[in-house]
Specification:
Blueprint lengths: L4 H20 L5 H22 L8 H27 L4 H9 L1 H13 L5 H18 L6 H31 L5 H23 L8 H27 L3 H7 L3 H13 L5 H18 L31
């Protein structure tokens, strides 16, 4: 696959995370679906890690760090995104909110890791939030619509904050870990958080229909394995910057897919807002890691002094 086709295929696959969430919503409780997905992903990844001779975490501390990161990255972020989509947030809007993660990372990096924002990044933060306001404003128009849409959008924003926290935690605590085994610890952590929530507040509903099983298979095989392998191959070829740039095409690509498959539409103001948000993220992100997908995958920093092309960044 050529250097151009591989990133394009990666973005196309990445954007289907929101589409799968929308497609699976009528057939399963979103959190119950994710719990099953975590179990299936562990069952697939564990034998692969053994066959590939992957390096496993060396201490209980590393396993605990992986579990905490997975609880944030999958349990809160991914669970929040899927719950929000199941409760009416359009897939394209949800993808855009998630794509703002670098803005929050840039804001949080100052007090947490001592990074200062220059004028360009502050401009990017301001432009990005104006763009998001333009996109979500039509969903909040009118008192009735506000009451119905405010909670799902708030949950989607909370999910984005959670992935920001996971990004910073991963950068500080999990750099250099083998992604093939670290993912297993992350999925275990997510399962520990998600399963009790389903039992207490949701329902273990999973329709035994082909759409439900097809959604599960796509989530595990295509999004959790094929897309991650594509990312690792690109990173090994020194294309980290290309991944970071193309990932910002995910919201419009998801919006197009949602229009073709579900009839979701965005008005002119919302389309302009999406463009503004992408511009803001590009200005503010700088060297920040790319945003996560609806499958909760982000890229971690290599340890200080190691070359990015030699150390794979961590997708969850």
């Amino acid at each position: 696959m050529s250097a151009l086709l591989m990133p394009a295929a990666f973005v196309l696959i990445w954007s289907t995370g929101w589409i799968v969430a929308k497609y699976a919503a009528p057939h399963a409780d979103p959190l119950a679906f994710l719990a099953l997905r975590y179990v299936a992903a562990i069952a697939v990844l564990a034998p692969l890690a053994v066959l590939l001779g992957a390096r496993w975490p060396r201490s209980g501390r590393e396993w605990i760090a992986a579990g905490i990161n997975g609880a944030l990255l999958h349990g809160v972020y991914l669970g929040g995104v899927w719950w929000a989509i199941a409760h009416g947030v359009p897939a394209g809007v949800s993808a855009l909110i998630a794509a703002l993660q670098p803005l929050f990372t840039a804001l949080a990096a100052g007090p947490l890791v001592g990074e200062r924002l220059d004028a360009r990044r502050w401009l990017g933060v301001a432009v990005g939030f104006v763009g998001v306001a333009a996109v979500v404003a039509p969903k909040l128009a009118g008192a009735g619509a506000l009451a119905a849409a405010l909670l799902p959008i708030a949950v989607n924003v909370l999910a984005m904050v959670a992935v920001t926290a996971a990004t910073l935690h991963q950068k500080r605590s999990l750099a250099g870990a083998d992604p093939r085994t670290l993912a297993i610890g992350q999925y275990v952590g997510a399962l520990i958080v998600t399963a009790p929530v389903v039992s207490l507040f949701g329902e273990w509903r999973f329709d035994a229909t082909w759409p439900a099983f097809a959604s599960l298979a796509w989530s595990v095989i295509v999004l959790s394995i094929v897309a991650i392998l594509l990312m690792l191959v690109m990173i090994e070829r020194g294309e980290v910057s290309r991944v970071a740039a193309l990932i910002y095409l995910v919201p419009p690509v998801a919006a197009v897919q949602a229009y073709l498959l579900f009839g979701e539409t965005l008005g002119l103001v919302q389309l302009c807002g999406m463009a503004l948000a992408a511009l803001g993220v590009a200005l503010a992100s700088g060297a920040a890691p790319p945003p996560a997908s609806a499958e909760g995958c982000i890229a971690a920093e290599p340890p200080d002094g190691e070359d990015e092309t030699e150390t794979p960044r961590r997708p969850a």
